[in-house]
Specification:
By secondary structure, the chain is an all-alpha fold. Helices cover 67% and strands 0% of the residues. The chain is flat and about 35 Å long.
Length: 147
């Protein structure tokens, strides 16, 4: 069979356009995998007014904020340490009754490690404490699904 006019055949008889298809698929796959690895958008964490907190609580929260800052600024840190840093700060904030700030921390931790049981579990308790029963139930459902 003769090739059509204007159509060149490559080394194995495959046209150059068809030979490019696997290469395109490879690059498309790499682009998709990079997109999947991009960090989710995270909520900003504001430091609450600690003027009424005890010295012990202040010290623990300041240490947790410093740890979070170091972890989030470290470009080489993997996702689990970042998630743990947000979660640890969230637990301390929740214990000190800074519920809004704790919520942002737990939501960040959950978005970084969606299959982790702890963060939706803590969110369930946090929402229960705030009287947000629908959010509480949804968070506990996510925790059950993760477990």
């Amino acid at each position: 069979m003769k090739p059509r006019v204007g159509c060149r055949r490559g080394v194995s008889g495959v046209t150059p356009i068809l030979a490019a298809v696997p290469i395109f698929a490879l690059f498309a796959g790499l682009a998709c995998s990079r997109r999947a690895q991009e960090p989710p958008s995270l909520r900003p964490i504001s430091q609450p007014d600690l003027s009424r907190a005890s010295e012990s609580v202040k010290a623990q929260l300041q240490d947790a904020y410093a740890s979070l800052t170091l972890t989030t600024e470290d470009r080489d840190a993997s996702t689990p340490p970042r998630s743990d840093a947000y979660g640890r700060l969230g637990m301390l904030l929740m214990a000190a009754a800074f519920l809004d700030e704790a919520e942002a921390c737990f939501l960040n931790a959950e978005s970084l490690t969606p299959g982790e049981l702890r963060w939706p579990y803590y969110l369930g308790h946090l929402y229960k404490a705030k009287g947000e029963t629908d959010k509480s139930a949804a968070a506990f459902e996510r925790a059950l699904d993760a477990g």
